[in-house]
Design a protein that fits this description.
This is LUD domain-containing protein. Residues 103-212 form the LUD domain. By secondary structure, the chain is of the alpha/beta class. It has five helices and twelve strands.
Length: 214
């Protein structure tokens, strides 16, 4: 018996009690696996997120909501950004103190035009503490996927604590598979066979995550 036969036989056994015409939504799947490791407080979960983001070479900032416009203006000015692309649903007050050209996310914007823009500022859908991952789902404050993959500098604002979860299973409960999902663990990077790390290959070279509390 080949490996293929073994795998298919296991699939058939697993589906033995499922009607042949049943669709995925009609057959409940038990999800009684461990959803998180431990029972950490919200503060500890946020702290773990910050640590793991830093491990992935993201730059992490903590700020109260009232100080966010000044912080964004400082971060863009410090980098020397002259232009920033923003999703349509990004709160206008976030960039109220920024002295840069604000470019709205528009369907007609080409990759070359996005490449000429210095930075992008977005919100997020959810942030996962155990993996140090930011997930975008093309929501109003996140925009199309391309605006977070082409510009070289991405500032992502995470609303704390409501957008922070401990684990991947908890994140999946908040996400829809019908939305385009982008999972970001640190700035874009790759390594060759000699483990020489190169950043900015298929996404931003610099990722800054702002953990914003009310």
């Amino acid at each position: 018996m080949s490996s293929r036969d073994v795998v298919l036989a296991r699939v058939r056994r697993a589906l033995a009690d499922v009607p042949r015409a049943a669709g995925p939504e009609e057959t409940p799947v038990p999800r009684d696996y461990l959803r998180a490791h431990g029972d950490e407080s919200a503060a500890d979960t946020v702290r773990l997120l910050a640590e793991n983001l830093a491990d992935y070479r993201a730059v992490v900032h903590d700020i109260h909501a009232a100080g966010l416009p000044a912080l964004l203006a400082h971060l863009l000015g410090e980098r020397g950004s002259r232009s920033v692309v923003v999703p349509a649903g990004l709160p206008a007050e976030w960039l109220a103190e920024c002295d840069v050209e604000v470019v709205p996310d528009a369907p007609g914007t080409t990759p070359d035009e996005l490449d000429a823009i210095d930075s992008v500022v977005t919100g997020c859908a959810v942030a996962i503490a155990e993996t140090g991952t930011i997930v975008l789902d093309a929501g109003p404050d996140q925009g199309r996927r391309r605006i977070t993959l082409v510009p070289d500098h991405h500032i992502c604002v995470v609303r704390v604590p409501e957008q922070v979860v401990a684990s991947v299973p908890q994140a999946l409960e908040r996400l829809s598979p019908r939305h385009p999902l982008t999972w970001i663990s640190g700035p874009s990077a790759t390594s060759d066979i000699e483990l020489d790390r190169v950043e900015g290959v298929h996404g931003p070279r610099t990722l800054e995550v702002v953990l914003m509390t009310p």
